[in-house]
Design a protein that fits this description.
Strand content: under 5%
Distance between the termini: 26 Å
Shape: elongated
Number of strands: 0
Largest sheet: none
Helix content: over 70%
Number of helices: 3
Structural class: mainly alpha
Radius of gyration: 11 Å
Number of domains: 1
Length: 38
């Protein structure tokens, strides 16, 4: 859904997410939400 709105492929979205997780030193969506909540 996000990939469709941004006009990118699903693989590109996965790559962006993986790079973001690496930069933030997290491994899951739950960790991302916890990080944003705090």
């Amino acid at each position: 859904e996000i990939a469709k709105e941004m006009n990118i492929t699903l693989n590109t979205q996965k790559s962006y997410r993986k790079n973001l997780y690496t930069k933030l030193n997290i491994h899951s969506r739950r960790e991302l939400f916890n990080l944003l909540k705090n």
